[in-house]
Amino acid sequence: MILPWIPLLALLGVVVPLLTRQRGRRFCSLATAAPAILALLLVFSQVPALLAGDLPRFQLAWVPQLGLDLAFRLDGLSLLFVSLILGIGLLILLYAHYYLEAHEPFARFYSFLMLFMLSMVGIVMADNLLLLWLFWELTSLSSFLLIGFWSHWTDARKGARMALTVTGAGGLALLAGLLLLGDMAGSFDLGVVLESREAILADPRYPLMLVLVLLGAFTKSAQFPFHFWLPHAMAAPTPVSAYLHSATMVKAGIFLMARLHPAIAGSEAWELIVTLTGMATLLYGAWFALLKTDLKAILAFSTVSHLGLITVLLGIGSPLAILAALFHILNHATFKAALFMSAGIIDHETGTRELGRLGGLRRAMPVTALLTSLTAAAMAGVPLFNGFLSKEMFFAEAAASPLLGGLSWLLPVLATLGGILSVAYSLRLVHAVFFKPARKAPPKSPHEPPRLMRAPVELLAALCVLVGLLPVIAEVPLGLAVEAVLLTPLEFHLAIWHGLNLPLLMSVIALIAGVLLYALHAHLRQFGRQFSPMDARLIFEGAVQRLMTWSERLTVRLENGSLQRYMSWLLGAALLLGAIGLLQLPSLAGARPTQEADGILLLGAALMIFGALGTVATHRYRLISLLMLSVVGLVVSLTFARFSAPDLALTQLSVEVVTMILLMLALFFLPQKTPRESSAGRNIRDLGLAASLGMVVASLNYAVLTRDNHGISDFFIANSVPGGGGHNVVNVILVDFRGFDTLGEITVLALAGLAIFKLLNRLRLFMPHSDGEGRVWSPDRYPLILTSVSQALLPLALLVSAFIFLRGHNLPGGGFIAGLITAVALILVYMARGVEWTQQRLDFQYQPVAIAGVAIATLTGLGSWLFGRPFLTSAFGHFHIPAIGDIELATAMLFDLGVYLAVVGATLMILANLGKLTTPHRPSKEEKH
Amino acid sequence: MNPEVALPILIPLFSGALSLLFWRLRSMQRLVAVAGTAALLITSLWLLASVSRDGIQVMHMGNWPAPFGISLVADLLGAIMVVLTGIIGFAVALFSLATVGRGHEAFGYFPLMHLLLAGVAGAFLTGDIFNLYVWFEVMLVASFALLILGSEKAQMEGAIKYVALNLLSSVIFLSAVGLLYGLVGTLNMADIAQRLGQLEEGGLVDVLAMMFMVAFGIKAAAFPLFFWLPASYHTPPVAVSALFAGLLTKVGVYALYRVFTLIFNQSPDYTHEILLWGAGLTMLTGVLGAAAQFEFRRILSFHIVSQIGYMILGLALFTPLALVGGVFYIMHHIIVKTNLFLVSGFVHRLKGSYQLKKLGGLYKSHPWLAVLFLIPAFSLAGLPPLSGFFAKFVVIRAGLEAEAYGVTFVALLVGLLTLYSMVKIWAEAFWKAAPEDAEPAPEAPSQREQWLLYLPIVGLALCTLAIGLYGAPIYALAEASAAQLMDPGRYIEAVLGTEVTP
Amino acid sequence: MLDTALWISLTLVLAALALNVYRLTVGPDMPDRLLALDTMYVNSIALIVLLGLWLNTKTYFEAALLIAMLGFISTVAVCKYLLRGDIIE
């Protein structure tokens, strides 16, 4: 149960600095370090168990259905990495304590740093592929926050975005790769995966998986050609660079390759891809490290180069190569962290990192000079330092690898070339900063840093020397780690002296040629300058920029703001999909015979078609178009009547009139005649679209109508009287069988009323002076004949409406039609008498009427709940009322009353409010011609 | 009796009527807004509990047996959606208290919000295809009214496009319902499914399926039918945007899920293949559109489109795992997207702008808001351990399992671009120092308003975290609902009460 | 006997409807068109009553009643529109 505490303590470390921020930086730093120290102790406490051959594991189900467990392990590989992460992390913390300026939010910084530590610990300890990936993404995220810590600075923001984008892309590829891998192995449990090598290598998806996983590893470990984000991540505060880019984040990719080595390595594809990528990275990084003039940039590129070296070793993949890789990981972490911190000290004390402004610092900073020289020597691979040992092993493995067949000699040659470059840039780093006289004075006068700020560097430098002299001490952790990668123990012995052999020769060549190269370095830079500077950031941002312009162009093309365009897209899509479907139909007509057409029907159809065409043809003369439209409406309602649907006919008629009035109210504010707006081409497009859609819809209708169906309508006819208490099936359907629909629809109506009320409320429109032909409006506002007729008609119409409402349950009619008739009748009064006159007499708002309607309908429905029945269950009975006689009453009529009120309220809300737009105090203007 | 099936529709309907009655009493309207949405949330949880305990819940309106009356059906998917409606409704109601001005309240913001919620809940619960149309209309009209609340020119322009294109969808939907009724003679979805299963000729059914696909595709904002969304979502008050962003398109997605698992499941090679193409293109066009934007809400709007693609992808792959992913994605997306809009509203309240150019410095001045932005933003991009990670993860895994590599690649790529967009907002609005020529910020929110602003954002962020960290039960829920979707027989049996012959 | 009468009158009414549409189309003036539409309503009433006679049902007569009433109102609305532009003042 000790294992989960290691990440948990790191998690605690995320919170602690935020909580202790108030108590000063010293306290906060100490408090933050405490959990990490404890975690490190816990890690060491597991070493005896490991040495005894145990594998400490811990497992807790998280989302077991997905195969995601909270599972940790601590094998040799994890041990090596987790000690590096925690150990160097602690040193960095100490360093950062002195590095950050007083005004900077140190608690936030610590918190991010610990979050990063947590995610790294998670990666190396995860015993589940998905969990590993989860922490993997967490490193991208926390490093994003760390790199962008100085967020006011554009470079920091851009560097952070680039790092996140590149590693994020790799992360997604890795996810896909790991999913495939888990699928091949049958489990995401690391133990199972590591043991399913045969199954994995034999799977046809293996190459795809390999490429995806390697993409993830390469992007994270800054392998060529994905290396470009790393130098730009140097915009981070130096402690971050020292931590992320020496020991941890960039090592995550390497770790992944080592971790999965037993499961996915060993194929030819693996060897070729990994080795060659590593070699390219090694050389590329080393070359640029030699050319750069910014201290941190030099270190960044050298990191790239060393990562390449480790990658080559992993690609070669022999047991000794693995050993060398792990050893170099350890060595690189120590000397590179020290070098980054030294660079930070120099930057901190002199105010610059440019080689051009530095020089001769050995006098002002003798101790730093010594420490830097020692660690740089380790980086260069000078004998008696730790870097020498692993580099020697690298040379040996490169020389022994048969990877390239007849061209295998290339590997040791290239490796030596890398060694030469590495010696040269290390030498340059030390020489230019400390020994060469300065050309220009640095911004600040340099002096040694605080004692404790230097302590981490001293410790690491001491380690470099110690391991270099006594390599035996590294044997135990390396032995455990190698065993974890190879799955079997490996007998080996680390020694400084192997006798006179090829690797030693390569080392000697590298050292001598490296010194020479540095001597000629000025010429090299001359040579390098001939190439146009290739700033990776510019390329990356150029690519992003291109994507932006491209997508902008695409978006503008699609989303150009034209409603017509959108409509045509929509209709086009509907047309395409509908037509494709129709094409596959064996025959359009079904089995049912068609009805015979008589003269009335034919003429009706002709009128309707004519009316529709006329509406379109005259659309520029709005009123004529409206009249044509009403012809269509009239014929439609006649058609309903002809095919025995009187209810529909009545509804259609009333809706028709209301619509006409509505349109005329709106037309008043529009020009009488619209200008020609569409080009001929567009007219043709629209015509084509409309005609084809019409044909598709007509064909569909024909197809459906000529097929038999045995629907539910018989039930309605049979149950209307016994179940619903009404003879008019349509009405019973509306208020009973499907009353719920009606409830929804009257809500829509009331809502529409509200919306239009809202829409009109702040609208102030100009009104024309005269009609389309320029005739001034007639002065007679309320013609006498109209007023008298309307007064006579009103009670009559209300009577009709009441009649239609009351008998609706049994004969054509009902609340909806009755409501419309009432509304139309009242509108007539409005027309005849004007708004003011009418409102004096109808002294109430229409809004509450509509709401009351909806409320009555809802409450009627709820009433049935009181009797333990489902919503809207109706009841009816026959009652004897004196003087009137037997009548039948149903709760559905109450519901119908709700419908009636909602319709009246909503219709009048719309029409009366539109009418009110034109008050006597209206502004007006001349119609323009 | 199981009133919890109907209550999620009736409560907002009733709250809407109530707050219309108290048209002039501002405090009463605000009270009803909070109480009504809270009641909705509670009943929705009740519904989910009883559905997961006792299986699919059915209520026959008017006590008419199915298929003759209208049935309300709550299966797990429906119940989950209703719960999400409740959560979003409640969060937005709280947020509205601080952001919707007096002017909008006076014109019925709250009643419209309630009625919109009623429409949404109705669409999720109805088991009748025509009734679904009715609730779509309720939603459409209510949302249109909410869009034009401010009567500004941009709002009008957006609203006209919104309503015109959505009405087109309604027309197509209604015609399709009519044709379907003509073909099978029934409207109850379970009954339709059963009768279609017995129909010998499938060609016509496929055509109808396409019509439904177009109609719901418009609602869901799928490619190439999404234009109304980016044209309008950035115009209304932010609480309205948030409500729309969370719920409206998801109703379309829900309808697609319902119809293409229950009714049109006969020829998935044809219908779901088209959906697959639609899903891929939707993801791509949405995310590319977002890349070209520099306005907070417009970026988010385009991302709705791209995220819809993932949900449709879940449906299109049509494997059990893919449906789990789709359902999970819907759950996650509703919460996260609403939250992002709420954050954008908060930012607007502080800085007075949605233009990234004019924003900045919030990381320094409001670090907690920055964290609250990062949670949904990274969740949207699919970073672990947030809700979006699981959602994306399951969909991608399903894609790989179905060996649909092309569309899976698109899904991964879109994830990356989404991340890039979110980082763009983060870098511009939060990291970057505030521009010097920034207009003076509007009056800062009072302490009480800050509470109202923070509360829903924190709540939704906690939901996101909870879905991520406490994933197993949520996943189990999604899995169970996907299992119901894959086995329409259970739905049919629950509604019609008969044994179904497969 | 009735059948013959029905046929003759139906034919005439239909012819009238067609002529109405003709007038509606060619105009020449707005009031002409308006009158044409109004006459169409009247003729529709006739048509519907005749249909009722022919099919021997009573249900059509309410439709006729409503057409009469609503046709009148819509004609009034168009008239008001022509005269004043603004139909509700």
TrEMBL record, chain A:
Domain MrpA C-terminal/MbhE: 682-764
Superkingdom of origin: Bacteria
GO BP: monoatomic ion transport
MrpA C-terminal/MbhD domain sequence ranges: 607-672
Domain Na+/H+ antiporter MnhB subunit-related protein: 785-908
CC annotations in GO: plasma membrane
Gene Ontology molecular function terms on file: antiporter activity
Residue ranges of the TM segments: 5-20, 27-51, 71-95, 107-125, 131-150, 162-186, 206-230, 242-260, 272-290, 297-316, 322-346, 367-389, 409-434, 455-474, 494-520, 566-585, 597-616, 623-643, 649-671, 683-705, 742-761, 782-805, 811-832, 844-867, 897-915
Location of the protein in the cell: Cell membrane; Membrane
NADH-Ubiquinone oxidoreductase (complex I) chain 5 N-terminal domain location: 65-110
Annotated keywords: Antiport, Cell membrane, Ion transport, Membrane, Transmembrane, Transmembrane helix, Transport
Location of the NADH:quinone oxidoreductase/Mrp antiporter transmembrane domain: 126-400
Coiled-coil region: none
Membrane topology: Multi-pass membrane protein
NCBIfam families: PRK12648.1
Name of the protein this chain belongs to: Monovalent cation/H+ antiporter subunit A
TrEMBL record, chain B:
Chief place of localization: membrane
Topology in membrane: Multi-pass membrane protein
Record-given protein name: Cation:proton antiporter
Gene Ontology molecular functions: NADH dehydrogenase (ubiquinone) activity
All residue ranges annotated as the NADH:quinone oxidoreductase/Mrp antiporter transmembrane domain in the record: 128-414
Keyword Electron transport included in the entry's annotation: no
Keyword Membrane: yes
Gene Ontology biological process: ATP synthesis coupled electron transport
Transmembrane domains' residue ranges: 6-23, 30-49, 69-95, 107-126, 132-150, 162-184, 204-226, 238-257, 277-296, 308-331, 368-390, 402-423, 451-478
InterPro entries the record matches: CPA3_Na-H_Antiporter_D (IPR050586), NADH_UbQ_OxRdtase (IPR003918), ND/Mrp_TM (IPR001750)
TrEMBL record, chain C:
Membrane-topology descriptor: Multi-pass membrane protein
One MF term in the entry's GO annotations: sodium:proton antiporter activity
Coiled-coil regions, chain positions: none
Compartment(s): Cell membrane
Pfam families in the cross-refs: MrpF_PhaF
Gene Ontology CC, one term: plasma membrane
Location, primary (coarse class): membrane
Family per similarity comment: Belongs to the CPA3 antiporters (TC 2.A.63) subunit F family.
NCBIfam families found in the cross-reference section: PRK06161.1
Name of the protein: K+/H+ antiporter subunit F
Organism this protein belongs to: Bisbaumannia pacifica
